[in-house]
Amino acid sequence: MKRLLASFKKAAILSITAITMSTSAFAVSIHEGGDAAKGEQLFKANCASCHKITDEVLAAPGLKGIADRWKGKDELLVKWVQNPNAAIATGDAYVKGLIAQYAANFGVMPGQAVTKEDINHIMTYVASGASAGGGAGAQAASADQCITLEDLEKLEPEDLEEGQDIYLVNQDKGGSSAFIWIVIIALILLVIGISGANISRSLKNAQAESESEEDHRSYLQMAKDWMWKNKKFVSVMGLFLFCYFFVVGYGTLMDIGVYEGYNPEQPIWFSHAAHVCKNEIDCQYCHSSAAKSKHAGIPSVNVCMNCHKGIKNGAVTKETEIAKIYEAIGFDPKTGQYRTDVEKKPIVWNKVHNLPDHVYFNHSQHVTVGKIDCRQCHGPVDLYTTGRQATTAQINAMIKDPNYKGITSGVNGQPVASTLIELTKPTLTMGWCIECHNKSKVDLASNDYYVEMHERYKSTEAGRRALRGLLQENINEEREASSWGKMPDTLAPSLSVKGLGGWECGKCHY
Ligand code: HEC
Ligand code: HEC
Ligand code: HEC
Ligand code: HEC
Ligand code: HEC
Ligand code: HEC
Fold first, then answer.
1. Domains and CATH numbers, the chain
2. CB–CB of 146/277 below 8 Å?
3. What is the DSSP secondary structure assignment for residue 509, as one 8-state letter?
4. Most-buried pick from 259, 342, 390, 391 (CB within 10 A)?
5. What lines the ligand 6 site, CB under 6 Å?
């Protein structure tokens, strides 16, 4: 009996070791087996503002080679990403070294709201990216393409590569300068005319003096006499001038309130291309309130310091422009300390976009509910240095540019350009708002906001009646009226924003 028990025990131990051995032999490490595409999205949303997948240091170490550095420490790595302080508390030597190396410049990494599966996807992406040409070479190649509009404007037309001029459309209106030239030429002619008249009068007077017969006519009288003599010429000129001023005047009136292309001077040469295109920082890292409030907001100096505590040099402006950040916040880049003996001078950015006070515009309504990409309204920001008001032509150019994909992928990870709608009216005018409200379809079925609203409507009789009324107004004509007698399961797919009331004056005007 004892022997039986002993051999049973032995077998049990054997099988347990076999099981543990097999799990450790076949266990998939956190760096493989995930979904790299999902990982890319997660990485861009959560990590890309500080980390690159190369070995380059952004505002934290590049993650290339992370699988080797954290070999056999999957659990610790998950702990580190979710809660760095807990990982530090384990006393692991590598983690201690990490903190010693980076925390002084960049601070301790904030805990990330990602699950273990998410981390698996991210690490799979990092591993695949680093091996499949996503390394330094590919990054450098794509960074080379981070050209700015200013660069393009400086090039001679013949030096532009094919297709590059597409964004330079409508850069200058020319109309007003032509007008100024006409005025200048007219003034010159007038001066010549008057002095000519003066000379001829002096001559006549001189002649008259000798003949003792003076010309007593005033200039006005002379002009009248001259016009009377040249009736035909004067009336043709008059008609021409009248038409010219009418056209110019009408154009000027129509342009009131149109500020397309506006690009004011800023206190710091901030480059969207360097941050958005070259370093792939998400718009909402800096304009973080766009998703949840009316305003997109301009980042405070503290946001800049998240990275610039460590990044003291820019590719174009070297130290000069970044030094202005330090001056604003009173930071001494040599000691890496904030100074207490100097006054802070907040950076005063000049406003680029400015709707009149009587208009209500809300970012979250468009970004979060409408799922519209920033570039639909702000244009190819990846090409900008400082902020500028996009022209409708530039926005439409993105749609036509087969190579334009934007850096952060657009709605649901699709290329940005494929999600944009072509519009014709100048940006920020009322015509622009309502043209888009007429053209954009509201995706009711896959939008949580409307699904929830739909459920709430459906739950009461009054709600069902109201919903039926709402839909009846917007049914596509082809549908037979009879099929609308019963409650549809999903809302009509072709409802426009206009159909939801997006053309009601009260929605946009206080
Ligand atoms: C706000 C900046 C920031 C964000 C966002 C961030 N990290 Fe970090 N991360 C750091 C810093 C800084 C360090 C260096 C150690 C320190 O100082 O805390 C670090 C270190 C790491 C390390 C160790 C690097 C090495 O070389 O061993 C890993 C792994 C890591 N982060 C993963 C992630 C992942 C995954 C995400 C996204 C889910 C993420 N981090 C988001 C700042 C950040
Ligand atoms: C439907 C068009 C539209 C979309 C989409 C949109 N914006 Fe705007 N944005 C505007 C308009 C219009 C203004 C001017 C608002 C004003 O003057 O009150 C503006 C103003 C701004 C400003 C100036 C500061 C402010 O809040 O007024 C910033 C920054 C900005 N947008 C960034 C963004 C970012 C980032 C996104 C994407 C997350 C975005 N916008 C998406 C239309 C849009
Ligand atoms: C998420 C990290 C990050 C944040 C936040 C950030 N920057 Fe930068 N910035 C960088 C990096 C990386 C570079 C280096 C780019 C290059 O030139 O290669 C840079 C470069 C610059 C440069 C020099 C550009 C050049 O090419 O000469 C200026 C100026 C600058 N940043 C200003 C700002 C300001 C102002 C803010 C805050 C509104 C800010 N940055 C926020 C990462 C950041
Ligand atoms: C690193 C921080 C940073 C990132 C990332 C960033 N911006 Fe900006 N943005 C700024 C700063 C600082 C300003 C104010 C100075 C200026 O006008 O250039 C600004 C200005 C703007 C303006 C003009 C605001 C006004 O006064 O009306 C718009 C619009 C804008 N950004 C859109 C975007 C969009 C869209 C993206 C993403 C494609 C983006 N930004 C990414 C920092 C950032
Ligand atoms: C690129 C297209 C586009 C442009 C340009 C645009 N909008 Fe919108 N707007 C939308 C979409 C799409 C919605 C619907 C979002 C949703 O509720 O699903 C919307 C909704 C709205 C709403 C809420 C309507 C409602 O029924 O509750 C208001 C208010 C509004 N927009 C104002 C403006 C103003 C003001 C402008 C111009 C400064 C503007 N929009 C420009 C696409 C646009
Ligand atoms: C989708 C949003 C939207 C709707 C709906 C809308 N407006 Fe406007 N409206 C605007 C914007 C934006 C401006 C500012 C245009 C500008 O500054 O060029 C404006 C300007 C105006 C102006 C000032 C004229 C000017 O050129 O500055 C008047 C008057 C006006 N709207 C009347 C109306 C009336 C009446 C209705 C209803 C039939 C209406 N609006 C509906 C967005 C809207």
1. 36-144 (1.10.760.10), 448-494 (no CATH)
2. yes
3. B
4. 390
5. 257, 355-356, 359, 429-430, 433-434, 437, 502-505, 507-509
pLDDT in tens, 147-203: 888 888 777 777 777 666 778 764 444 445 566 678 878 888 887 777 777 777 777
User: Atom 18 (ligand 1): residue with closest C-alpha?
Assistant: 108
Distance CA(353)–CA(101), nearest Å, equals: 42
Is residue 368 within 8 A of residue 291, CB to CB? The reply is yes
Residue 465's CB: how many other CB atoms inside 10 A?
A: 11
Nearest CA to ligand 4 atom 6: 283
- The binding-site residues of ligand 5, defined as CB within 6 angstroms of any ligand atom, are 355, 359-361, 365-366, 369-370, 372, 376-377, 421, 428, 432-433, 436-437, 440, 442, 497, 500-502, 507-508
Question: Which atom from ligand 2 is nearest to the alpha carbon of 427?
Answer: 12
pTM to 2 decimals? 0.71
Q: From ligand 2's centre to the CA of 415, what distance in Å?
A: 20
Q: Are strands 337-338 and 331-332 parallel, antiparallel or unpaired?
A: antiparallel
Q: What distance lies between CA 93 and its chain's CA centroid?
A: 42
Phi then psi for residue 389, to 5 deg, are -85, 115
The per-residue pLDDT for 389 is 94
Choose which residue among 322, 329, 347, 386 to substitute to test ligand 3 binding: the one with the highest number of ligand atoms within 8 A of its C-beta: 322
CA atoms within 13 A on the CB side of 3: 0
pLDDT tens-digit map of 269-325: 999 999 988 888 888 889 999 999 999 999 999 999 988 988 888 888 989 999 999
- Kindly tell me if the per-residue pLDDT of 484 is higher than 70: no
